[in-house]
Design brief:
278 residues; alpha/beta; Oxidized Rhodanese, domain 1; five-stranded parallel sheet; 29% helix; Rhodanese-like_dom
Length: 278
């Protein structure tokens, strides 16, 4: 991992194995349903539900400091706790990294390879629900330097030094499918005009480990996604794009990357913004 711009933001499975009983470490598993967690999870991991813990009812990300304080306090996380994040979907751990960094949490890391690699290596699993004494977490206001809002995204369409990066599936980008079926007539299909498409899963090897710095650099530079540009990744609800923010900023060292967390969920519902469909 030393070849990355900031290798310190990743931990491997052996490091986590060595720290399973460390009281200063809290492991977070994130999924759309609690059932996989109840069946088997990394010992001492706390479960966060994407829909009820991280999103609002309209699928916007819940970036209310009071809400994040309640979530972290309930999970036994203090401002000094070391948080290790993973999930059942590619890039979920990096999404949690972005959320916690947005609220100023310093000690947050991504489990490289996630749950898949942990299981593949035959490491221990637990079925007991993890419970810790509640803490009293104090969140900072969301860091505007990590986010880009819709108005600035729209203004960037005429900028040559700025690049929009659509990290959804090819079918979503082409307007053939939605990540989730929207209410009738509420969401338009397609992508933001001029956006470069590169699916977020292409940053990972088959075992879930991030590709090398050289491979990642080749992947992005081949599509004109270079460090001299300001890059705004987006997806459907801001989670997959947060993982690409992580890759570009921390693994490749791009200096100007901000996540459009409103993403397609917001853009597609605005009546007066342009949309492209191949």
């Amino acid at each position: 991992m030393s070849q990355y711009a900031h290798p310190e933001v990743l931990v491997d499975t052996q490091w986590l194995m060595d720290h399973l009983n460390d009281a200063t470490v809290r492991i977070i598993e994130v999924d759309m349903s609690p059932e996989p967690y109840k069946n088997a999870h990394i010992p001492s991991a706390v479960f966060w539900n994407i829909f009820t813990d991280l999103l609002l009812s309209d699928l916007r990300m819940n970036l209310d400091p009071v809400a994040i304080e309640k979530l972290l306090s309930r999970s036994g996380i203090s401002n000094e706790t070391t948080v290790i994040a993973y999930g059942s979907y590619p890039g979920t751990g990096a999404w949690i990294f972005w959320i916690l960094k947005t609220f100023g949490h310093d000690k947050v890391y991504v489990l490289n390879g996630g749950y898949e690699k942990w299981v593949a290596e035959g490491r221990p699993l637990a079925v007991e629900l993890s419970n810790f004494p509640p803490s009293s977490y104090h969140a900072k206001s969301p860091d505007a330097n990590l986010r880009v809002l819709q108005t600035e995204v729209q203004a960037s369409l005429d900028r040559t030094d700025c690049l929009l990066l659509d990290v959804r599936t090819p079918e979503e980008y082409c307007g053939e499918v939605f990540m989730m079926k929207p209410p009738e007539g509420a969401e338009r299909a397609g992508h933001i005009p001029g956006a470069v498409h590169l699916e977020h899963t292409l940053t990972l090897n088959e075992d879930g480990i991030f590709k090398s710095k050289e491979e990642l650099h080749s992947l992005y530079s081949s599509q004109g996604i270079t460090a001299d540009k300001e890059v705004f990744p987006y997806c459907a609800i801001g989670g997959r794009s947060a993982s690409i923010w992580f890759v570009l900023k921390y693994l490749l060292g791009y200096p100007r990357v901000r996540n459009y967390d409103g993403s397609w969920n917001e853009w597609s519902r605005l009546p007066d913004v342009p949309i492209s469909v191949p």
